[in-house]
Amino acid sequence: MQIADYIRSRVDFPEEELKDIMSYFRKETIAKNTVMLNEGSICQKLYFLEKGVGRSYYLNKNGKYVTQWFFGEGNFMTSLESFFQESPSLSFMETLEDSVVYSITKENIDYLFEKYHKMEKFGRIISIDMTTKISNKLNAIQFQTASDRYNYMLKEFPNISMRVPLGDIASYLGITQETLSRIRKKHY
Amino acid sequence: MQIADYIRSRVDFPEEELKDIMSYFRKETIAKNTVMLNEGSICQKLYFLEKGVGRSYYLNKNGKYVTQWFFGEGNFMTSLESFFQESPSLSFMETLEDSVVYSITKENIDYLFEKYHKMEKFGRIISIDMTTKISNKLNAIQFQTASDRYNYMLKEFPNISMRVPLGDIASYLGITQETLSRIRKKHY
DNA sequence: TTCATTTTTTGATATAGGTCAAAAATAACC
DNA sequence: GGTTATTTTTGACCTATATCAAAAAATGAA
Fold first, then answer.
1. In terms of CA atoms, which chain B residue is nearest residue A129?
2. Contact, B53 vs B144, CB < 8 A?
3. Is the CB of A131 under 7 A from strand C?
4. FRET label pair with B149: which of A97, A157, B137, B161, CA 20 to 30 Å apart?
5. Using an 8 Å Cβ cutoff, are B113 and A119 in contact?
6. What is the pLDDT of residues A88-134, one digit of tens each?
7. Which pTM does this prediction carry?
8. Contact assignment for A80 to B131 by CB distance below 8 Å
9. With 90 as the cut, is the pLDDT of residue A64 above it?
10. Spacing of B132 CA from D20 C1' in Å
11. Are strands A92-95 and A35-37 parallel, antiparallel or unpaired?
12. What does the angle CA A164 – CA B128 – CA B66 come to, to the nearest 5 degrees?
């Protein structure tokens, strides 16, 4: 999915505004397993993932890496609070495949928010979408068995579940990798 | 906390804009244990809770009511997707105490979003805040023991934890009420 | 106040999923 | 292509928390 199409699908910008907005995004290619953001540093960019997969994760108090979120094609990828509040990130962010992204800086997106009323609207709509998605995860995690959680994963990230390490998925779902392995076996 | 102060704290509206915005909110008093939104119906209003406590909850597939979120004084209260996407709500919403709220309709808030660029900004900021909060809950729930979860609850909702039924908190935290009761006992 | 209802606590037992350890299967690299 | 490193699977055992049941405490209505 192209970023322009994605934006258009959410807010009907006049074409010349969209063109201007697009000019602030920079295309980048990022190799597999590149850590794009470290814990403690401030997230400098908002990425739109055109191709590839990424995840955010953090180091929990038992010294284990826990996946917080997966990012697939056609989605924005960032550490939301760190980027928007310019605060030290609590999590890491990395690519899990060679990826093609479009990135924009905080400065530029703020400029666009100021410049275009519709850009703010776009920001609001995207944020509400994100809230809904996280809320879905929460509902899945909170009261469901390990195997229900895996079904949620398959539904929410249909084309990611088979492309990323099992351990990353297990920690995302709050179960151990051994348990996930056994679930997959039953699942055939 | 007054709603005007809350809005001011997030975005610096010119006073006359704020005044106009305020005029679209209607003060309401809602008695304890009033169901404000039913599962399946479309959430008609966004509420700002000036006084009282509320919660949203849903009926899970085992026929149990599960608290999804608590709303305390000085916060907005709504079913986000239902209100903004005008879709049937997946959850119920109720007051847990006699409450004083300021409400606004979807139609009016959309009008204000269109009218004031800064209103869109306010909407965006609020949504990001909400995402952060949900994300905090998720991190607490996902990998922590029952007792850690209760500590999260105390921290996130300091002045709510002692005002609402134990069973409502237990389901919010994804544990049984018996377990929560035992935790509270140890807690001294 | 008293009685009925709801909520919370306590006790006994069961179980889903965790932990630890090692084997098997894949993937990465010279 | 063979060797090493990484990831996944399998097995045996354990523990935190669920479940079920019933007593105690708190709340509310008349």
1. B81
2. no
3. no
4. A157
5. no
6. 999 999 999 999 999 999 999 999 999 999 999 999 999 999 999 99
7. 0.90
8. yes
9. no
10. 38
11. antiparallel
12. 75
